Amino acid sequence: MNALIIYVSIHHRNTEKVAKIMAKTLEAELTKPWEIKPEELLKYDLIGFGSGIYYWKHHRALFKLVESLPRMKGKKAFIFSTAGINIPFINHRKLRSALRKKGFEIVGEFSCRGWDTNGWLEKIGGISKEHPNEKDLENARRFAEKLKSMI
Ligand SMILES: Cc1cc2nc3c(=O)[nH]c(=O)nc-3n(C[C@H](O)[C@H](O)[C@H](O)COP(=O)(O)O)c2cc1C
């Protein structure tokens, strides 16, 4: 299986920790959305899209890339994120919809908490401190194992 993980992690590198453990498990390549050309995605069997959640959605660079893609009929994708308040039902909604519009089949979603010191939260040391922790990363590894066995 040929897997690729595209991620953005700008706040505390929280999502990068998750992306790296998934990449190791899936033997996937890791890249940023601005480092890859749309047509290059065609050669992968499975593509993961992830970032921190910034104002209730994924990073805009992921949306920019997805919008520029050709039709990806039936291509398998998964979504992941870290967020101060982990509510994937809301936080993943926009990216899920953008990927489906392009024809991706979403085969899994993963999310966990990530240390958040945005704005005034900095004054109290942030929320979801020390996340992703060992348990979160173990859950990410298990999620990737499951994907590997499915595909
Ligand atoms: C500008 C900004 C906006 C954010 N908006 C949200 C949000 O809407 N919901 C939430 O739960 N966390 C929010 N966060 C917290 C991040 O999602 C969280 O810290 C995440 O783990 C950051 O991932 P990263 O370190 O990979 O960038 C925000 C953080 C920043 C910097």
Automatic annotation (TrEMBL):
Tell me the Gene Ontology biological-process terms attached to this UniProt entry: heme biosynthetic process
Q: Which Pfam families match?
A: Flavodoxin_5 (PF12724)
The source's domain of life comes to: Archaea
Residue ranges annotated as transmembrane are: none
Flavodoxin domain residues: 4-83
Q: Which InterPro entries match?
A: Flavodoxin_dom (IPR026816), Flavoprotein-like_sf (IPR029039), Protoporphyrinogen_IX_DH (IPR052200)
Recorded GO terms, molecular function? FMN binding; menaquinone-dependent protoporphyrinogen oxidase activity
Entries under PANTHER family matching the protein: PROTOPORPHYRINOGEN IX DEHYDROGENASE [MENAQUINONE], PROTOPORPHYRINOGEN IX DEHYDROGENASE [QUINONE]
Name assigned to this protein: Flavodoxin
